[in-house]
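User: Please fill in residues for this 147-position structure.
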């Protein structure tokens, strides 16, 4: 049986994407700005995604029937992370703030955005799912009679 290694390439890209920035925090202060990021492996979703991706890689290597379902689960987990980090109420509490203290005026703001590692993860999970979708069909070997 010939192995297809292309789904394994996207498995590796999903594993790498878990270690890339998933969340980016932008802080803006008077005269200064800062950016901080958090990789996917430092989040609950990223840890679950890594476990699922590794399982999906083993299933893809064995050409298991339900490999595409694992890819779809990875995509769903990535979408949950997007909604959690981008639309979460706690993160949207950030914004612009200004105030005064005596004759000192200050202003600043903060925002959270999705890091590019999460987008890489989502794209790789879609491609992985599409490439492994054919494993769900029953395989027919050459020369086998259909009865």
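Assistant: Residues filled in for all 147 positions:
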């Amino acid at each position: 049986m010939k192995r297809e290694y292309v789904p394994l390439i996207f498995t590796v890209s999903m594993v790498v994407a878990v270690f890339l920035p998933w969340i980016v925090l932008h802080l803006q202060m008077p005269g200064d700005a800062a950016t901080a990021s958090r990789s996917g492996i430092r989040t609950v979703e990223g840890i679950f995604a890594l476990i699922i991706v590794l399982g999906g890689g083993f299933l893809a290597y064995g050409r298991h029937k339900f490999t595409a379902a694992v890819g779809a689960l990875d995509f769903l987990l990535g979408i949950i992370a997007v909604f959690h980090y981008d639309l979460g109420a706690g993160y949207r509490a950030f914004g612009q703030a200004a105030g005064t203290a005596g004759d000192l005026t200050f202003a600043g703001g903060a925002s959270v955005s999705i890091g590019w590692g999460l987008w890489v993860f989502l794209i790789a999970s879609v491609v992985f799912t599409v490439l492994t979708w054919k494993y769900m069909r029953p395989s027919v070997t050459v020369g086998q009679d259909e009865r």
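For context: Confidence is low (pLDDT under 50) at residues 89-93.
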